[in-house]
Model the fold of this input.
Amino acid sequence: MNTTVRKIWVIAFAAFIFVPFHPCNAQSTSKDSAAALYRILAIKDSLVYDDILNTCNFNELSSILAPDFQFLQDNGGPKYTGVVGRDRFINDFKSYCSKNNNPAAMKKVRRVVAGTLQAYTTGENTAIQMGVQNYFLTKAGQPDLLVDVSRFINTWTLKNGEWKMTRQFISLENFHAPHTDSLYATIEGLDAKLFDAINHKDLATLKDMYDESLEFYHDKSGLMDYKTSMEINERHFKDTAAKYVERRELDKNSLEVFPIPGFGAIEVGMHRFYTSFNGGPEEVTASPRFVLVWQQKGNQWKVVKVVSYGH
Done:
């Protein structure tokens, strides 16, 4: 682990006005189906790490990961710089298994912290899962040694009746950038610019700040691409221009930023949305948490992934 690299973390992509995911037990989903989805994804998540760390069952792992699976970790360091694809992810853990097959050697064990696992539907065939995980080194006759604490987000897609993991984001705890860090200031400034464009219905700036590869996860509309997102924003701006005024306010104490070496940064925080109808007083209409993934391309930063939750 490269402890000299400063990190930052944010949690979940937001909607166009950053309306967040509804949890699986929301009214739009029956309690039975929500519980079933929670159990299925919990088992799938557990199998991924059992296959990686214990059984080295890479046929099963391959069946769980989608063909377009991507892995992102905020402290990528020299090993994980930027986005890691499915083939490299699997091959790296094959190498791990081959080096750690001695029964007498210390083993790495992953345990999800009780009570932290959550699941949210993001569409008819898509879902998001998040939680906190601990990694321990274990050896017979010795106490377990805690070596890592991290938060994770998994995105899932239902394909041919089977849930496939499409993305995994990992963020190490306590490695966020301090407020005096230049990266923190950069992302804070970009955040202000992005939401100023939303507040003022500035579609041109919004289009410029979102990358054309955008993945936008939304509880009502599901997974949307750049084109769909921009079309919805354009309609929303036109339909609401004469009806009410919207304003977003960031909870600055909640803002965290994590660098992704060779790629960009993850931003996490909480914010509130205010609406004023027909010139009346402002009302708080939403208080979600959010995550943005930023990619740096030369001197320009673009949002490539968005999620929102905790409405």
In short: Residues 49 and 110 are 7 Å apart (CA to CA). The two ends are 35 Å apart (CA to CA).
